[in-house]
Amino acid sequence: MKYVIIGGTHAGISAARTILKANAQADVLIVEMKENVSYISSGINLFFDGTVDDLADASYATPDLLKSEGIKLMLGSEVLNVNTQDKRLYVVSGDEQYSYVDYDKLILANGSKVVKPRIKGIDNENVVLYKDLEESKRAVERLNSAGKRILIVGAGLAGLALASSIYEGRKGKDVDITMVEAMEGILTHYVDQEISSRLINDLKEKGVKFILRNDVHAINVDNNDKVISVSTTDQEIDCDLVVFSVGLKPNNDFLRGAIDLNQNNTIKIDDYMHTSDEHIYAAGDNVEFRQTVSQHRSYQPLVNNAVKGAIVAAYNCTGLFKPIKVETTQGTTGTKLFGHYIATTGITEENAPYIGLNVLSSTIEEEIEYNYVKNNSKIVVKVIYEKDTEVIVGAQIYSENNILDTINVMSVAINMRMTMAKLATMDFYFNPAYNKALNSLNEVALARTIKPCRISK
């Protein structure tokens, strides 16, 4: 049995390794259009904050390592067409060297690409879009050589993470960061306005400027083709370099006519990661995942979704086990931005009405204590729950302390349809050297479930 996987990043490598765990004798080939594998798309952030000295080090596997594990590689090879009738890929490699690759089972892990707006000036050398290693190298070169006035379009996770890493890398000096966002707040897919506003205020103290409710319509250059400003919905902003971080889109154009695609160009799959073709599975940034709360599919390109989908696709395509379903997703995320940790899972209170939910929320803000001594650091916890059932559907946590792992508890709570009453008395460990007797998650649930009452005489 020959297994061919298109794509050599998170989903593709996870699928290859899973197949070999199931069958050590399997013939597994990864076809990757780049000359490298396993590059982390946020590697540019690791470079600027000093975690890695070379962008090429922002990876978790080398070609030699994968080969030693029994995985065959075909790098620098782009799949142009999939012939499902003959189970054959049409591939171009290097200097237009064309060849065929046959398969018995195919896993599509071809990922996504950055959205490139169609606006004036987008192709200027000081306009940066990045995702893969070569794009990231170019971005670093331009960011290091351009002036200090950096304008980032898009205040989502990727845009804010880049801004944070640049700021930290330069120790807050010789950098002037402006962020332009079309929405009314930042991280609007992940947090409500009250958390967004806190983050904005904290970042403004670092000197970051925000232009909200504005779209970029043009990039303006001088007579030497040097970027001097951008034109937005209602103003012109001076800058030396522009970074676009406005989202990703699935890289599925070559699949048209071969398998069924959705209107947004994602691959149609079932809960077993199976496509419309019986011999083809798909996983990663090229598919939609079913959301736990709404039970609807949506496009949410996150590494955690890509990896778990790839594992399910790999197990199922071997035919060696009873088919397993992929778990629904809560869209759980966590990151550090300008010295502040923020983590989210599930839906926001503001987005709940759009999926037909009537919700309430509970928010607490308290000082963090160790050894019963307050350390002047606060934690903000918000939990969103259904009004009628009190089933938890979302959570947001924000602090200067590393609270990222806490969000995993809330992700499980949403997946298991836990109620606020149960969370209020849930058992958490206590050690006076590290925390307090009543966990913040207990506190936020108690704030809504235990209400004062008057006993009649």
Automatic annotation (TrEMBL):
GO terms for molecular function: oxidoreductase activity. Its cofactor is FAD. InterPro entries: FAD-bd_OxRdtase, FAD/NAD-bd_sf, FAD/NAD-binding_dom, FAD/NAD-linked_Rdtase_dimer_sf, Pyr_nucl-diS_OxRdtase_dimer. Residues 1-297 form the FAD/NAD(P)-binding domain. Residues 340-438 form the Pyridine nucleotide-disulphide oxidoreductase dimerisation domain. Pfam families: Pyr_redox_2, Pyr_redox_dim. Keywords: FAD, Flavoprotein, Oxidation, Oxidoreductase, Redox-active center. Belongs to the class-III pyridine nucleotide-disulfide oxidoreductase family. This is NADH oxidase. It comes from Dellaglioa algida DSM 15638.
